[in-house]
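User: Please predict the structure of the protein below. I'd like the answer in structure-token form so I can feed it into my own downstream comparison script.

Assistant: Understood. Taking the following sequence of 467 residues as input:
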Amino acid sequence: MRRTLCRTILLQILLVVVAVPALSSAAEFNPSLILTDTDLTAHQTMTVSEVRDFLKTQGSGLATAQFSDVDGATRTAAEIIIAASEEDKINPRYLLAVLQKEQSLITAKAPTQKQLDWATGYGVCDSCGLDDPAIQKFRGFATQVRRASGIMRYYYDNAASQQWIKRTGQSYVIDNTAITPLSSATAYLYTYTPHIAGNKNLWRLWHQWFTKMYPDGSLLQAVDDEVIYLIHNGTRRPFTTKAAFVSRYTPDAVLKVTPADLASYSVGGGISLPNYSLVRVPSGMTYVLIDDVKHPIASQAVFKSIGYNPEEIDDVSDADIAQYLNGTFITTASLYPLGAIIQDKKTRQLYYAKNGIRYVIPSEEVVRVNFGQKKISMVDSKQLAKLEFDARKVVTFRDGTLLSVKGSPYTHVVSNGMLRLIPNDGVFQALGYQKKNIVFTTEQALITIPTGEPLSDVASSTRVAGK
């Protein structure tokens, strides 16, 4: 398919943001990919204080408990977890999930001695009892944590030489289900717990507690990948061409994330065509693509009236633009068919004008964020009178914009057309936001945006469901 960029001035235009109800962004369980290797081995994800704080938020008795460690020293549960994590290079989040999966120790306010003695289920097989003399050497909280961490490191270091350790690329029948692990981490989890139900429970805990869920409008890129995704309606839509991305966004808006963060979203339709592309389908109909809307051009005469050249047309298939919504026809009678920023000469009020209708723009910052360097055209009252005024819709900041007011301690992000509070620096940093990307605007501009739920219940470095 031939690719041509439309005129530069048109590429700088962005359409009014329209709020769309969010769909669920919960990940779907795949028994062949429970955790990635990055998930299991990222051992610097939490500190002792962060583990302790996490235990407190869960009301866990482990938050204040102390135990005799394997070297005889008395340490807190958080210290033991981090020590094991650092020694074996295993993610402490995994150890927290195992403690809950095996003995519900993360939510147990007053754990029993039995729960503590067999904290991670290490050494306890399906056929042996807890009083079996052969497994008494594994008894005790610290020993259980150290062994659960150490065995995962052993799997990584010895899988090539030990045939009993499950591995990627091989198929296994587990609970009457054929499973081919897609990561070494998944293979090792089945080696440790040879049941789907137990591993699904661990997967559920992992995503409930530790998966970051980004608001719609976020731009995400895995640290080891070149593909940039737009989070839209709970899915991740890949930009499949550079032109498609640069016609809409700038690189500094992209958040670097882990592969695990991306894996929480199902893949949506790709974004391949630049904004304001001129395309023609096999039937001969020609469209202008503006964000997610395709506007049919009524006739060849319209090309000249709106400044397009027929040579700029890209021939595409119906499938290429199937995901675009149907928009209004562009005719020679259309006023501002491609959209324009206009300003009343007398009142200085800003408007977005499109297809004969004008909408209020509450601040200059909206123009800068949504429309880039698009020139503002000054108009008089007679010109304004030619445009129908829609007072029901205000052009607000596009999804993904970080907003604040000078002197205010609060920062918000726009998602699905809603203003959502970022409650603290921890959530701000956990999501990878940067202060340099905060747009400072007026209180009047913020008031025009409907208020949504704060981000605290959907994203943080250790997200807690329902918190």
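That's the full token string. Residues 128 and 135 are 9 Å apart (CA to CA).
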